[in-house]
Amino acid sequence: MDLLLKFRLKKPFQLRFVFFVLSCLFSTLFSNNVLALEDKITNRIGMEFILVQPGSFMMGSPVEEPFRETDEALHKVNITKAFYLQATEVTVKQWKTVMGKKIFSRKKGSDNSPVTQISFFDCQKYVKKLNKANIGNYRLPSEAEWEYACRAGTTTVYSWGNGIDCSKAMYSNNTKKSPDCISFYKSMNFKKDGPAPVKSFKPNPWGFYDMHGNVWEWCSDEYRWYKNTSSHTNIDTIKRETRIRRGGSWYKYSKHLRSANRTFAHPGAKFQTTGFRLVLEAD
């Protein structure tokens, strides 16, 4: 009887101890969700995503930067939530996999080429179909998220430094407008008057390819001059004002490839120089 009483007294204590240990373990793992997230994710259709940690950075360019535009005012931005950004631009194969092979959805280029002639509205259609596949929650990056990942902790003109040449990224591959790099790219077996396959150039310090050059990339934001603020919030993606494009392209000059450089277009515009990459929500 005494032994049975002792066992009954100890058992609740043992259970409480086990629950205490488990609660400490889960608290350590999940008190900061970023610690529990994978560094890289590849979804079922082969889209690679890299985890971007929260942090602060100086968005825009200093007044002394060559080719700086007046809409690049330097200001502090806080990225408050972790997110996954696609390692490359969306490829022709990834586009076809989601959108199908109907005549109106056909896109030129090899499977590993960045898909182009995509409007901002087309991006939204792609995101909508991809989200219905139940393989994550996807969207376009905000302009701040895009520059944060492009800079990858750097403050120089480009993520590799202040200078540029044809071996660093795809630009000036245009026989009529800007032919400076055509002969170099020919030696790499790239076709003229178009982008290179994704991953043809070295990634930036965080592992992202073609943030500089190859094709312009749509962002979610409407084009506005920067406000005097230390934080950033996403802009409504339903309205039809002009939308931000980032990164430069094969079409023209290296100055367009600067980390801070901005341009914009009507959301219905389709250019042979423009594609996109996606964000996969981390929570």
Structure characterization notes:
- With 283 residues, this protein is an alpha+beta fold.
- It folds into 2 domains: 7-35; 37-281, paralog of FGE (formylglycine-generating enzyme), CATH 3.90.1580.
- The protein is built from 5 helices and 11 strands, in the order αβββββααβααβββββ.
- The chain has helices spanning 2-30, 92-99, 120-132, 143-151, 182-187; strands at residues 40-42, 48-52, 55-59, 75-79, 83-86, 138-139, 216-222, 243-246, 263-265, 274-275, 279-281.
- The strands form 3 sheets. The chain has a 5-stranded antiparallel β-sheet with strand order 1-2-5-11-6.
- Strand 1 (40-42) and strand 2 form a beta hairpin.
- Residues 1-10, 24-35 and 229-238 have low confidence and may be disordered.
Q: Tell me the name of the CATH class of the largest domain.
A: Alpha Beta
What's the order of the H and E elements? HEEEEEHHEHHEEEEE
The Rg value, from CA coordinates, equals: 23 Å
Shape: globular
**How many H/I helical runs?**
5
End-to-end separation: 53 Å
Widest beta sheet: strand line-up? 1-2-5-11-6
The major beta sheet can be summarized as: 5 strands, antiparallel
CATH domain topology of the largest domain: paralog of FGE (formylglycine-generating enzyme)
Could you name the ranges where pLDDT drops below 50 across 5 or more consecutive residues? 1-10, 24-35, 229-238
Q: How many domains is the backbone divided into?
A: 2
Structural class from helices and strands?
A: alpha+beta
CATH superfamily of the largest domain: paralog of FGE (formylglycine-generating enzyme)
Rounded mean pLDDT score? 87
* Number of strand elements: 11
